[in-house]
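Hey, I'm writing a tutorial for new members on how sequence and structure tokens pair up, and I'd like a real worked example in the thread rather than a made-up one. If someone can provide the structure for the chain below, I'll link this post from the tutorial.
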Amino acid sequence: MDDPRLLLLCDHDNVLVACRRIEAGETIIVGGESRILIKAVELGHKLARLPIAPGMKVIKYGVPIGSATRSIGPGEHVHIHNLKSDYTKTHVIAETGS
């Protein structure tokens, strides 16, 4: 069971999507486990649903959207600090502020 503020888009996904901003320090439920957010997560951003090892594909909408650049624990924010796009160079994403 996952937090109702987090959306699972496809059963094969290893990330959940925030349905609204969730503040740092708030408790979320991921896979039935309580976790405290270290940093705020914005609407539409991803959180790991499962442990994701370095180099492992990050799956959203049932398809790979990139590869983990380091180990990502359940409930951890998944973004350009720990995810490398397999399609767009990460430095281009950072420059546009996306």
